[in-house]
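User: My advisor asked me to double-check a structure prediction for IS1182 family transposase before group meeting. I don't want to rely on an old file, so could you generate it fresh from this sequence?
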Amino acid sequence: MMTKRENQQIEMHLITIEDLVPMDHLLRKVNDIIDFSFIYNEVENMYCHNNGRPSVDPVALIKFLLIGFLYGINSERRISEEIQVNMAYRWFLGLDIMDKVPDHSTISQNRRRRFNGSDLFRNIFQKIVSICIEKGLADGKLVFTDSTHIKANASRKTEYIKQTEEVTNEYLKELDQYEETVRAQLESEGKIKPIKCRKRKEKTETIRRRESRTDPESGFYKRKGKAEGMHYLSHETVDSKNGIIIDVAATAGNVPDSQPYIKRIDYIEKNLGLKIQEACADSGYDTNLINQQLSERGINFYTPERTEQKRGTTEFQRKDFQYDEKDDRFICPGGKALPLHRLNRTINTVTKEYRCPKAECKDCPFRNRCIGEKGSDKRIQVNIFEDVVKKNHEKDGTETHTKVLLLRQIWSEGSFAAQKSRHNLKFLYRRGLEAAEQQCLLSSTALNLKRMIKAMA
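Assistant: Sure, here is a fresh prediction for IS1182 family transposase from the sequence you gave:
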């Protein structure tokens, strides 16, 4: 029988907001494991203590934003509307049933003005990571690093081509230092001729770059199989123990993955006190310089297996030449020596060049198979970091290597999938690199809180 309710009256009930929030609610669990009072110390210098109107509680401001990232609400106006009717949200903010909800514009103005230019959101993220470390939920023994693209709040119609001067970045400056060290050693041993002037000018080149007038700090992102356009990149490092994200850094979308990597590893060890023992990353991080720098830090490095590609059109390849370690030279299939000739620097790498004299190659019976009809002499390029790279890739295909790569796929790619679908990382609703990093930090903080609760259950 159908029941129809008519003339429903509003009854009066004696009840508290505490009674309306289930004991197993996510926000109760968050409040139980994190004491948010540390935020007062973080923002103390941002407020006047003896003048002005009373402010909204800064802890409530941060919790307001966290609600949006925990529940995937990407509009501050909508968060305010949800808090109005959601008792759990009110309880989390410390609001009673009849208390007025802070207006969305108040939250927005505090975020854009009071907190702008500060490390508040990074400090909050790092505080929660530190708590995870103290509770043994992250130890840094094995970490995974990857980046994901986030669509910038920029119209494609405002893009234009700009001629800019590209100055040498930190990655290339570090490569310069390695080059100078190796060159000085080879010159002192008499293996190569000294160069007349060692002074290196800062490299600059004029390039054509696509930029956006809407958000000039974003970068044009174009990779195979991905949506092109103006984007930012979120570079995240995840601990393998429970999937806690221990570091986040945002860059423009056109920055190579490898560029900020070593800085972030050093940042983790310095600021979190973790000693990273093993690291795993995608093939974009598998550069010669990164292999060398991680080796110097005593970090075992895992990347996808490298595939050997045939270079050149001649029959003889590098493997057909025997290396004489004692005299530091190669011996060709015809028995002729290729001594070290010089140290060769290209844009992104430094190689030792071994060369066979032209007179030796001129009448060699293997000439066509080795250098072809138009070649004059045989040259072999050996990267200065080749030994370290080979050592790191000796474990390719092993059971441990396969297991580590699978874990990277689960934790790194799994984290990005969760953040994009449920924690506001699919696109940016603000503009500028600082705003992008804040959004990445809050998204990672929300996911960390959930994983922290699950690990402690």
